[in-house]
Batch of 4 targets.
Target 1
Amino acid sequence: MRSASRRTWALLTVALLFAFYFIWVHFNVPYIAISTTYDGDQFLVSNIEQEAWSAKSGIRVGDVIQELNGGPPAENDWLVWSGNIQTAQNIVVERDGELLPFDFSDMSKQPLSFNLTIVPIMLFTLFYLFSTFIAYKKPDDKPAIYLILFFMSVALGFLAAGTGVRGDIFFLFVYENLYFGSPGYFSAIPCRVFPSPQYKSFAL
């Protein structure tokens, strides 16, 4: 049973490493979150996430994207393919005939997002501390291990959301699977851990 305990602590260590990476991205990659529409010769801002740095800097719906990271927006493959600007170092927009530059290179000026940064970090910290307590008290208890897996999946899912919306496709996939998939993944666990018929109704 000691091997189960080692696996649990290894899982917690890996989860912590992922969390450190997610948090690093939160504080080192600008969160821009602009959606655009293309009318044939220009990209118009159609929507902006209100917690994004772009919105708080003054970019508005209806602005025309003239430059993105120092070049024409039409040369940005991600923008052309998706119509979205999820992160950028600088943007120049045109509004009422005037060119307005916006610089996002100084990360110390990025406003903290309550929903995408503060809440996920607090949630992960709480779940991680609780999981380490469970691992210490119940190192070889199978239901406890499943509970730790569930807590880490949800907590990392929240952190991965803030990474995925910055243009990281892999971690957007991780977010969708961990956050939205966790209830389904773990719904069948009770009937495996507890063979009693009274738990079989939890299985999908």
Target 2
Amino acid sequence: IDSGDTLFAGTDGGVYRSSDNGQTWSQINVGLLAGPVQRVVVDSKGTIYAGVSQSVYRSINNGNSWQQSSGNVCNVMALSVAPNDYALAVFEACGIRMTKDRGVSWSVTGAGIELFRSLAVTQNWIAFAGLDRGGAQMSTDTCATWTNTVLPNASVRCLAVAPDGRVWAGTDGGVFKTSKAVTR
């Protein structure tokens, strides 16, 4: 994950930071619960979110220290930053939660979603969620409801929105992309 000139990586040993394009790395785990960091995202204001086991942690000082943000919920499956720097977290068997205040508080926005493995949100607030059991779903109402997409029935491991608005999906069956920018 890139924040300006700084790279962040979530690993089994926590979060690492590089300020020299990946030449050297420093472990930055002060306040971070021990255990693998499954997901890391950075918003445009520099807040870093790290999904660790059953919680989301945040750092507002470039990773120098971490605070538990979401409380202990369920296994963190995906993290994404949406427009307005809202952060979204998918919790296994506990639905989707959103923060509008840089991780101070979280609210449920998509309950009942259990099989999402990945999440990406376009600049015009269209959310895509990759399913563990195959395919992807799309939401145009801030993750309240979901509809199926035409993605092949393969486990979607990661999703990303390119600067041109196209959505990319990494699956067990290959890499797929939309033919054009996704709009409402």
Target 3
Amino acid sequence: RRLCAEQGYRGDVQSVPVLPVLTVSRRTVLAERALLLLLFAAMAGIGLLTMARPLLEPVAPHLYVDGEPALVGMQAAPPTRTAGLAGVWDGSAQRAADAWTSAHVAYRSLFVRSFNETLYRAFAASYMNNRTLVIGRKQTLFEKLYVDAYCGLRREDDRTPTTAFAQRVRAAQDWFASRGQHLIYALTPAKTTWFPERIGSAFRCPAEQRDRNYPAAIRALTAAGVTFVDGRAVLEAARSRGLELFSRNGTHWNALGAALFVDALTDAMRRDGMRDVPRLRYEVSIEPVEHGGDNDLIDLANLLWPPVGAPSPTVHILPPEVPGTRRMVSVNDSFMYAPASLLIAGQIVRKLDFYYYFNIFHRLYPEMADSHVDPTRTEDMAPIFSADVVLLEEVEARWGGPLATHFLDMVDRMRERAGRFDRQ
């Protein structure tokens, strides 16, 4: 097996003897000195260009074009600097200067991508995305969060106990039903459940700890009588088609996986009494390589030459026989981006209020208008209590976690407030 072909537990990379590689370049003393002088000259030139950037870039912008696209991902906020000499004394001035230099260094994208390319190709490792990218078998990318959850390696102190959480969801569904609304819960599968055989052998993934969240969730939700969509069961039922429903280079399901989830969601809506909800109509075709959202993880790796993914199914939306008239609210994580677009493009619902992780932002479809969310503001929560149907979605690895519990806490407050009004 190729050395360092897989990333190890806790993100550690297996060691590789690099001294022989370095000594290969030791030809002559003259060659070494010439190489050192060349490197010094290059570093000095880049340093001078960086320091002069505020002056030179407005008049000679071509000096700072490195030919590479902008880096993908979120950049950490710069450290706060203490004013005056106190900042030098406590080190905040130095940290702020280091952060500024890193952000404004000339040809930054080229340097970062070159370094990442070397790590990825030589050691199958990446420092991007806070070192959470895991390269498994067949060059399949995972996020460490989902590998740890699937293998039972995560401590989950912020999750509600299984039975109690299912009972809370059922109580919320009953309350929404008493108001003439529908609340549907959905579990979405992580990529590790579709490609468990591609998780690197360097991860400890004992059989007795593996994949414990999902069975417990299904048992608890069923026992509590919750109306829910089992996303994993939906995708597993389609495995016999011979089409992959997760991409090699991404973390979320592909377009066909999202469409199958929407099919199951509309079925659940009909079972819950909304019998006039239209079905999603679409045709499936195969693209030669993964594209768009299929590449979200490899994009985060910020490489010079990202590897091309496998052939990938995509869907082409057809007009519905009768457009949907309902308004939906979705309280969800990132797995709902693709289904949300399909719900609107297929005219399953008329409007969709998308609450990303409940309190990060609110997006209104089809207008694609984003706004800030404050769960304590009545006007920010108003769409939830006026929509025809509310969808609460979580990925299996985080079921019963902060996303859903914060939403249910808000619902409990509204139920208590409504109870006080009724008593008055």
Target 4
Amino acid sequence: MARRRSSIWAADNTAALDPPWSLVPGPWSLLSTGFSLIEILVVTVILAVVAATVTLAVAGAGGERQLARDADRVAALVGYACEQAELSGRDIGVSLNRAGYRFSRSEHADWQLLREGELRPRKWGANPLVTLTRDGNRVGVGDEFPDKPQLACFSSGELTAFRLELSLPDAAALYRVEATQNGEVVTSSVDGRGR
């Protein structure tokens, strides 16, 4: 048996169900689809410029973030050193220089550097300008550590009152670590323009 195909014909003698576009692309339809090489290159250049701008903005703020971390870390470690001084019954000293800070324990008339554990020597993350004042008097912070610690956590629970200021030469941010004699250590951010 032969089957008969049925189709609907339009008035212009073409099949009415056929779409108006061709399934096989002709030479003109290829030119109108996709992006040109110039358009792709322009978008690539724009994305590269935006990525470079974001990278530079994030890198510029990195120094200030590191400075804030340094201030928080030194405040936490001084507080921890004071707790350890009370628990061990031995004074713990804090020495600072331009490169970092270290802790030492009082052993009779001498100070022994603590090399391991939480109170190991540390370096500043960002190369800050370091200013230390004790009892309202400025204490010199040089390239080398001093022979004796500039600050001390006493076994009685007291602490040398001090103010440590960390700042970057090219930024307005200033971070301050202040300690009272009762052992309270507080970190604060100060607008560097109002120094």
